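Researcher: Structure for this, please.
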Amino acid sequence: MSLDVDVSSNGARAPLSRKATQETVQAVLRSEKVRNALVSITFLDKRAMARLNKEHLRHRGPTDVISFGFARATKTDPVVGDIYICPDVARENAKGRDETVGRELKRLVIHGTLHILGYDHPHEDREASEMWRKQERLVSRLTATPRERTFRRSAPQGDSAKRSKR
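Model: Predicted structure, token format:
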């Protein structure tokens, strides 16, 4: 099994370490049972992201994340994809969501990884899509503090949780 993830930057500063970025991609790939992958993540400044957005998507201005997944000839071939993230746009998004920039960057890493795996969402009402729900479950799991992870594991589940409240 080889989950190779390369992380680079064109000079854009991202408050998410190379290691944390790699581990996030690998966690998403493992959650989807991917055994072989070659993924590159590049953090871009606004100008470079705007160029990429215009050239490939015909949209004006920078966006938060763009991903390119390459088709596999067989299921045993590795997943191959490139993900581009603009930390400056992520900062703006984080303010609007009342989130930390680090959590928003992880969200974009997860979002881009799901796209290269073939997930998609409608442009309208994307937050109601299966991809968005999967993304948010992964964001919760991969950004939880050790204390939150312990609480989730020890919290009562199902019918027993209802009975314990009585």
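Researcher: Any notable elements?
Model: Confidence is low (pLDDT under 50) at residues 151-155, 157-166. Residues 2-164 form a domain with the Collagenase (Catalytic Domain) fold (CATH 3.40.390.30).
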